[in-house]
Amino acid sequence: MALDQRAADAKGPAQDSTGVVEEVEVQGHIVDSLLLPKILDRILHMGGSFEIRECRIGSRRVDPSYARIAVRAQSPVELDAIVGDLVEHGATPVDPEDAAVVPADIGGAFPENFYSTTNQHTQVRVSGRWIDVADQEMDCGIALDVKARSARCVAMTDVEIGMPIVVGHAGVRVVPAERPRDLGLFGFMSSNVSSEKPKAISLKSVADSIRATRAEGKKVLLVGGPAIVHTGSAEHVAELIREGWVQVLFAGNALATHDIEQALFGTSLGVSLVHGEALEHGHEHHLRAINTIRRVGGIKAAVEKGVLNSGIMYESVKAGVDVVLAGSIRDDGPLPEVITDTLLAQKRMRSAIREVGFALCIATALHSIATGNLLPAWVKVVCVDINPATVTKLSDRGTFQTVGLVTDVEPFLRSLATELADVAS
Hints:
This protein is an alpha/beta fold. It has 3 domains: 1-95, 2-Layer Sandwich (Alpha-Beta Plaits), CATH 3.30.70.2690; 96-177, conserved putative lor/sdh protein from methanococcus maripaludis s2 fold (Beta Barrel); 189-424, Rossmann fold (3-Layer(aba) Sandwich), CATH 3.40.50. Helix content is 33%, strand content 24%. The chain contains 13 helices and 22 strands. It has a 7-stranded parallel sheet with strand order 14-22-21-20-15-16-19, with helices on both faces. The protein has a 5-stranded mixed sheet with strand order 10-11-9-8-13, with no helix packed on it. Helix 5 packs parallel to helix 9. The longest helix has 17 residues, at 199-215. It is elongated, with a radius of gyration of 25 Å. The termini are far apart. 41% of the residues are buried. Mean pLDDT is 88; it is low at 1-16.
């Protein structure tokens, strides 16, 4: 199919004799994913105009489509800004250049005009060839070793003097994650924040995704908040870990502390999880739990010495789960394993997610958002919380692949553990 169209702005149609123009191309499932109309809308929104010079639409759902678009602006500066924006949405200049690099002149900071990454699959052009960018992560720069023909995302704080950093958008292309072809839980990602979904279907889809992730040899990440313990859900998470469904656990001091408090005293925040009543002096239990663990040398030592015999932390130690506990300013203690240096915690989390294929975020806003910022777009994320704002924030902060389930934590985790147990049997 061929299609020519001249876009008009408020002042009338663009004139061929004015302005500057650059051609870009976009390909893949650009129609059903609404990528093509999004690109055209971005051009108009940024004050440019376009002409579709070539357009080929795939005849079947599995067939890719292609479009070549002439982008026009009033000045080179405006055109550069528009094309740079389109690169983020998967468009590529028809006549690409090699990526430009500038050595970092200051440690812990990027050069001016550095390329800011997204969480989408990204490539850079070196000596006329496109190479993949490793360790994909949003809000980073790209360190490019031209001789080794290797590129990777690097956090601002990890920049060293002399490190070659990609600047500008030339020689960079983004390959957007395609919308899943099935109509399951991840079929329509952008609209999946609701309390009115059929819970049974959503639950089965989550269980199927976890099972598929493990079958592919990838890891499942659980990001958990203390509400897991407060709601009496710790036993369900412990079961998931014990049965081998979770390989990585991200949490803070609170989840680990109250899980250990439950194991040692049967309470969470001093409230009995059996009777639902606050116990006398129960408010001391979390601090006494921390003190007990600190006195024996840590969580692992407590398990080895028989001090800790149940719970999420106990099962994590026994199963060899990669646990990253990131601290906060309000932490009591904290537990010895809690990383109190935020930047060090980020590094540990980056290291732990490299083989993760599925992330399940449960009842924690800050840890969920932090994890979402580290994950590439092709890692499926499910966020479960009773508060819709938590689910919405994760998507709004750039982790667009998130599916949100607004529901109570305990029945969800109980049903998930049962569903996976049925699958295993």
